[in-house]
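Following up on my earlier message about calcium ion. Here are the inputs again, as you asked, copied directly from the submission form:
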Amino acid sequence: MSEMKKTFLTIYCLLCTVFLIGFEISVTAASELHVHNIDTDLNYATIQEAINAPETVNGHAILVDAGTYYENLVINKSISIIGENRQTTTIDGRTGFPWVETVIYITANEVTLAGFTLRGSKPYCQSLGIKITSDRNNISNNLIIHNRKGIWLLRSFHNLISNNDFLSNDDEALWLTGSFNNTIIGNTFSNGYCGILLEDSRKNKIFHNNFINNTKHARSQSPTNINIWDDAHPSGGNYWSDHTHVDLDYDGIGDSPHTLSPLPTQEQSDNYPLMGMFSSFKATSDHCIHTVCNSTISDFEFDSGAIRFNVTAKEDTTGFCRVCISKALLNDTYRVFVSDTEVPHTLLSFSNSTHSYLYFTYPHSTQEVVIIPEFPLFTILLFFLITTLFVALIKRWQGDIRTSPKKEILGKNSKGTYV
Ligand SMILES: [Ca+2]
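Thanks, got it. Here's what our run produced:
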């Protein structure tokens, strides 16, 4: 082989190697971009990069793949940031900078943050899972766990805090300071020091939340600050795990108000405390089924016109469920089965033209509850009548068919006419 050929072959091999290495780098880089702006189709390695990008503007949505992101975010644009799954998409504030005390700081209005586990704002006394100093934000369906404080609303208005689980936060899970007209519904505050602390905050609506095993469930620090702790009857207020109320009329709501410490006034009371934990399950894209139940509910499903779920609690106790069903989902009377045995139920008197409220009890263990519609007697009779009429008409028609073709069977006479 000539020297020229050797040189050419060497250069060719080097070029191929460079190309393959470059290809590998580009593939690796693309696979590491787990944050996606679905409005621009651009991808990013970190959530903050996606927020900061000049192409990201108000109204955009950012989707975040499952994984753990060690970041401390500042959200200064009116955008939606959605995690793939709140159990597997985590933002962890422990980035190694000891002066950082907040996992997420929201300064823009109209931010949506949903589908994340938020953790790691420890151990400093003012460490926060989320700090909000803006309005009309939507913080929903997150797991806010192991922070010093969960969420702080500071002079913020018209925010929605819904369907989040606040678990094992050292101080206040939700802290409002000088904040008005916020809606706090469907959250669970458990195993922390304090569920909610209200400071100089008023006209906030707080209902359908579960307060479980906190040192202090809720505190409001001024008697002149009026907040709303229930959604009236029959919708109800909140579940308080340490309540001692009775429910002699079996409607799932305690018969006396739950007063809040340290200032129990009429305005600081939950007038319709729930006797069991509140849960909301999405049955269809348009309708939810709400339960108030003293059992743990799992494996909920709505399929082929039947509601199914499992109930679990300590054995040798009595369980109850109040189930609120939209009549657009199941409209008629109902049958309730617990582990394949039909149990009696009460259709509560405040059921109305849009919603049915069922109440039933059962002995505790792990049991499957099934609720199906029962067709009323009038519907069954009407169905029987229509079926009978239809069969009679068919028989009559078949009789006409059998008698009408006689002329064709007999054939034509000599004059060519049918006989
Ligand atoms: Ca009651």
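One observation from looking it over: Residues 3-31 form the longest helix (29 residues). Hope that helps, and feel free to reply on this thread.
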